[in-house]
Amino acid sequence: MSHANAIPGLYARHAEAFDRIRGKNGFERPWLDRLVAPLPEHAHVLDIGCGSGEPIAADLIGRGFFVTGLDVSEPLIRLCRERFPGHDWHVGDMRDLSLGRTFEAIVAWHSFFHLTPEAQRTMFPRFASHAARGGVLMFTSGPSAGVAIGEFEGEPLYHASLDPAEYRFLLAESGFVVLQHVVEDPACGGATVWLAQKT
């Protein structure tokens, strides 16, 4: 099995450890502020790769938004359902995303980059089909094209990225305009962040 295909099992086996060590100090908050700035009150947000619901979904719920979360790990979705029972949680693979509805915002924070480059390319039409007109999309990537193998709980952890120019092309092709792109944002733990809006 490839490192990329091992991701679902990795997050299922180590859900408790992931929830325990996942940073919850809110360093992502400035980017979430930008994500929600154009949203109407009580907007619907799709959190792709929502993990245990903390801190991203928790922050959005605290602002009064309704969150639909998707994660490949059943144990992590179970935690979401326990913590935020008034919201909509799904076990599933983002590569098969097909919810049949649109959202005012979509976020894929530190999840999208676990897909292979080929799988990432196929996600942009899925983002577009789930984004309302004027809806915003935020995701994290690597700073440049390549594959990096990290480590989590003693197991290989796959990450991949396309070139920034290709992300811009794919976004434009799917009807998104880039609002902001910061490479290795020092104010956000070194995350490379994209924020785009559906035209």
From TrEMBL:
Name a single GO biological process.
methylation
Q: Which InterPro entries match?
A: Methyltransf_25 (IPR041698), SAM-dependent_MTases_sf (IPR029063)
Superkingdom, taxonomy of origin: Bacteria
Q: Which Gene3D superfamilies match?
A: Vaccinia Virus protein VP39
Tell me a Gene Ontology molecular-function term this record carries: methyltransferase activity
Quote any Pfam family the record assigns: Methyltransf_25
Q: Does the keyword Flavoprotein apply?
A: no
Instruction: Tell me where in this chain the Methyltransferase domain is found.
Output: 45-135
Give UniProt keywords alphabetically: Methyltransferase, Plasmid, Transferase
What's the protein called, per UniProt? Class I SAM-dependent methyltransferase
Q: Which organism is it from?
A: Peteryoungia algae
